[in-house]
Write a structure and sequence with these properties.
Blueprint (H helix, E strand, L loop, with lengths): L4 H15 L2 H4 L9 E2 L15 H16 L3 E6 L2 E7 L5 H9 L4 H13 L6 H15 L8 H14 L6 E2 H9 L4 H16 L4 H4 L5 H11 L2 E2 L4 E5 L2 E5 L4 E4 L5 E4 L6 E6 L3 E5 L2 H6 L5 E5 L6 H13 L6 E5 L4 H14 L4 E2 L4 H6 L5 E2 L2 H12 L4 H10 L1 E2 L2 H7 L6
């Protein structure tokens, strides 16, 4: 039976009404009829200015469905006012067969079985599946069709696993077997799930643009739009597993592809201090006679964490001092705490104090609501209490670029 899209839509809407009814659920003891208005499928049907030929085409479509005993219509003044489903015993199976859909109860059970099969996966997937299960048990549709849900779960499973650096198009090919599906269909959906999981609250708190939030989450999970690089400068000798040796010269910045970090066999730091820098402008500006600088780019990712741990482990005998130079704002201290926690290295703040804030007060910015909450949280847990209290009392903060511009020579 060849039906056009509007004729199929009529049957879909009637089926939807039936499968959402008490009759279908076995809760109704009164005979029900299932009807829709013509405007449910043809919104301009009652429009006085609608093309007469278009209206005639629609009415012919209805007559065709009536001739197949798929609907009945009720008219008033030669105008259709109601479209109703037939009520024979074989009607609904026949409609499902025409539409190529399964019975709702059977489909719901298949979906429940599917989502329940992933309840031993990581917490993000488990939460996603539990949410879909709750929706289905409440007689609502899952958030996505089953095929999309399966792809979302596979993407989450890969992204949250311990995997090497991967570019987004490579991820799309690896999981979806198509280089463009990730960007076109799944990126926003997966990133929204990751954002709402709460796992990345610390690193995205304060970010306002959705793109920046999603990019930050993915980079934290070693997924990039383009190849990533680690920027550093100072005195060091890096030996790779294949025997190559890279001599890093003082104040001559170099960029190393993130994929090369795993190939570093030895990294010999020839400076007395290692300093991470939060922002690129400050990294480019600062200089030091005995400092090895590494650009952090806000919250560090797993690759930089590996490099910093390798630096620390291989240079412990030298009593190197570790500093972090970031913005003098609550976010800056959250970044510092994240760095200390993830690397287990005792990074101390550089120029992130009351003295610097007072010195450059003319360049400070006013607090925002999330700054107040974060400053109060720092004080509550006894972290950086002096500077956090000063910032909170004066409702001011300072970007590190001012300090690196005014005083580019690092003295520690």
């Amino acid at each position: 039976m060849n039906l056009n899209s509007r004729q199929k839509l009529i049957l879909e809407k009637l089926l939807h009404k039936y499968e959402g009814s008490k009759t279908y659920k076995g809760e109704n003891f009164v005979r029900q009829t299932f009807s829709i208005a013509p405007t449910d499928v043809y919104p301009k049907y009652n429009d006085d200015f609608e093309d007469v030929n278009s209206i005639e085409d629609f009415e012919k479509e209805l007559k065709n469905l009536e001739s197949e005993n798929l609907i009945s219509t009720e008219s008033r003044n030669q105008h259709v006012v109601k479209i109703s489903a037939n009520t024979t015993d074989d009607y609904w199976p026949k409609v499902r067969n025409i539409l190529g859909v399964k019975e709702r109860k059977l489909q719901q059970q298949e979906e429940l079985n599917f989502f329940r099969s992933f309840l031993s996966k990581n917490s993000v997937i488990v939460d996603f599946c539990k949410t879909q299960i709750s929706r289905i048990e409440a007689d609502k549709k899952a958030a996505y069709p089953l095929e999309e849900s399966a792809n979302i779960i596979n993407l989450l499973d890969y992204i949250l696993s311990d995997h090497p650096e991967i570019l987004e198009r490579e991820l799309s090919i690896e999981v979806l077997h198509d280089s463009k599906k990730w960007e076109k269909i799944y990126r926003t959906k997966v990133c929204k799930i990751l954002q709402e999981s709460g796992i990345f609250h610390e690193i995205i708190d304060g970010l306002e643009e959705t793109k920046e939030i999603y990019d930050t989450i993915l980079e934290n999970l070693n997924v990039y739009k383009n190849p990533s690089y680690i920027y550093f400068k100072g005195s060091a000798k890096i030996k790779f597993t294949d025997g190559r040796i890279l001599d890093v010269m003082q104040n001559k910045a170099l960029a190393l592809p993130s994929t090369e970090v795993s190939d570093i066999d030895e990294i010999d730091i020839l400076n007395k201090t290692v300093m991470t820098i939060e922002n690129l402008t400050s990294f480019n500006r600062v200089r030091g006679t005995d400092v090895f600088f590494l650009y952090l780019s806000g919250y560090h990712n797993s690759i930089k964490q590996v490099l910093l741990k390798k630096i620390f482990d291989q240079n412990q005998s030298k009593n190197i001092l570790y500093y972090h130079f970031g913005d003098i704002d609550p976010d800056g201290f959250y970044i510092l705490e994240n760095l200390r926690k993830k690397t287990e290295i005792d990074f101390k703040p550089y120029c992130m104090d009351v003295k610097s804030l007072k010195k450059y007060r003319n360049y400070t910015k006013s607090f925002e609501s999330n700054d107040i909450k974060k400053a109060e949280s720092l004080i509550a847990v006894g972290k950086y209490v002096d500077i956090a209290t000063y910032m909170l009392n004066n409702k001011i903060k300072l970007e590190q670029e001012i300090i690196s511009w005014m005083s580019s020579d690092v003295d520690v």
